[in-house]
Fold:
Amino acid sequence: MPGADCLAGLIRRYSPPAFPLPARGSLPAAGGASGAGIRAYLFDVYGTLFTSDSGDIGILASQAGERAEDGRARELLAPFGPGASLPDLARRFSAAVTAEHERLRGKTAWPEIDVRKIWANILRVPEEAAAEFSLRFELAVNPVYPMPGLADMLRKLRAAGFPLGLVSNAQFFTPLLFMAFLGGPPDALGFSPDLCVYSFREGEAKPSPGLFRKAAASLAALGIRPEEAVYAGNDMLNDMWAAKQAGFRAALFAGDGRSLRLRGDDPRCAGLKPDFVLRSLADIPT
Structure:
């Protein structure tokens, strides 16, 4: 498996600049909470700290088709072999993920996979060798880029001494985004390892409240109650609903219409009010 620096370089090379799009339509009304008493901040990654076409890790079938003839995608997929087709790889990947989800569904309602295992089985290579293939495929179908103001926001929160964490649908390469764009791993940027909960490590994906309960337990070790922490994310179900189940204050990030997920057809989100609505990362309550 290539080293972290090599993989971070791959991310930098194949992640074109992307900028947020305005959110369309009306947004949920904020619950009217004040910023008083906040002692910690936790964040979603995809669609919140980084732009993401899908608003989450993973792929959409339409993305694979749209990018099949993209020169950047062809370069990324070159190691897969001369006949590699992005739509074909996407179909094989989706089918393998679906099969693995079904296998795991007896253990949890929100099963999560490790993409290295999926690609190792598809390509019949060792998991270590599958790591770079996994990242190349993700970059081909779901390129990401830092949200405006990300570095500045983290610098301010870190300087103020707030504990910082991540609760994310993530894979092994997710922490490498911080290395690629911000110059260091999450812990070097102020994120506490104990407050970083990644779905691929837990075997569960959001909206599992279990991910947030694990973060809450780590906060408790610092003497911080869930209601004293803000969780910011772009998805009303995966982020707002799930965070509130664990007692967190919830901040809806509506700074990018591309990734904003209001989930108006989900009964769990009916009448759900985030405590805060953020139009940009600069709006994070402090």
Observations:
- The longest strand covers residues 191-198.
